[in-house]
Amino acid sequence: MDTLRTECEQGASFGFTGKQAIHPSQIPIIQSTFAPSEDAVDYAIRLLTRFCDEVKEGKRGAWEFEGKMIDRPVVRKAKRTLYVARDYGIEMGRVATIIETLEEIGEVKEPDWVDDPTWLL
Questions:
Q1: What contacts 73, CB < 8 A, 6 or more positions away?
Q2: Helix (H) or strand (E) holding 53
């Protein structure tokens, strides 16, 4: 199982979001490795909360958040973190709240991550 964890950690560091299992006993290790961390989910929630405020004020370009420049690719990554967190059952209440807010302002689109080029828009 140490080898499996190492493989999962390496895959996650390369940007993969999962791994195929050949036995049910591998699933907890795979899920715990690929699930977003609490810090990542918390950051995504804070960022997207601010993003919603920016959109409601009519702002659409790049903006500053916690000392960093934020633009559309950063927002997309934060949205993806929330979708994955939701799928793993992490922070369900907070995640659902921000997704509802995104829906209210027309900023939710659950893409097919690979096959939907409009997600990049």
A1: none
A2: helix 38-56
Domain that includes residue 22, residue range: 2-34
Which tens digits make up the pLDDT trace of 51-104? Answer: 999 888 888 788 899 999 999 899 999 998 998 888 888 888 999 999 999 988
**E strands, 68-109, where?**
68-70
Exposure of 40 by Cβ count < 10 A (0-12 exposed, 13-18 middle, 19+ buried)?
Answer: middle
Same domain for 26 and 52?
no
Q: Which two tokens stand for residue 9?
A: 């950690």
Q: Annotated catalytic residue: which of 53, 71, 87, 116?
A: 71
Same-domain check for residues 13 and 46 = no
d(CA 19, CA 7): 9
Nearest Cα residue to 46 out of 62, 18, 70, 21: 70
Residue 87 is a catalytic residue:
no
